Amino acid sequence: MKQKKMETLVKDILIECPDCRSDDFLLIYEVYKRTIPQSQQMSFGEICKEHSQHEATAFESITRARRKVQADNPLLKGVQVVEQGRSEKQEAFRKYYGNFED
């Protein structure tokens, strides 16, 4: 699926399903549900193994489209993202994993 079409689909999903705004797995599930109807009867393993047969969009392409849509439409950002800034998330990450230096 072309990136522009993916962005349109992702935007529609973010509008219809606010929970997808901050949950990539839920967003990917919704995208696959709409683009690969038979995915509803398939296990996660089957989808991963047979992704090329079903022309499944890569997870990264879906999450990239979400980031682009949310950058262009701040009202579609997840509540958690709006409440907690990026620097706070980075600080929490450093505290949890340690302060690694390059």
From the structure above, extract its key features.
102 residues, 62% helix, 6 helices, mainly alpha
Question: What's the helix and strand layout?
Answer:
Blueprint: H1 3-16, H2 24-35, H3 44-49, H4 59-72, H5 79-83, H6 86-97
Helix pairs in contact: 1-4
Describe this structure in words.
With 102 residues, the chain is mainly α. It has one domain. The chain is 62% helix and 0% strand. The protein is built from six helices and no strands. The relative contact order is 0.16. The model has no long low-confidence stretch (mean pLDDT 86).
Secondary structure class reads mainly alpha
Largest beta sheet, briefly? none
Secondary-structure element order, N to C: HHHHHH
Average pLDDT for all residues = 86
Point out poorly predicted stretches. Answer: none
Strand content: under 5%
Count every helix, treating DSSP H or I runs of 4 or more residues as helices: 6
Radius of gyration: 16 Å
How many E strands? 0
Gross morphology: globular
In short:
The chain is built from six helices and no strands. It is mainly alpha-helical and 102 residues long.
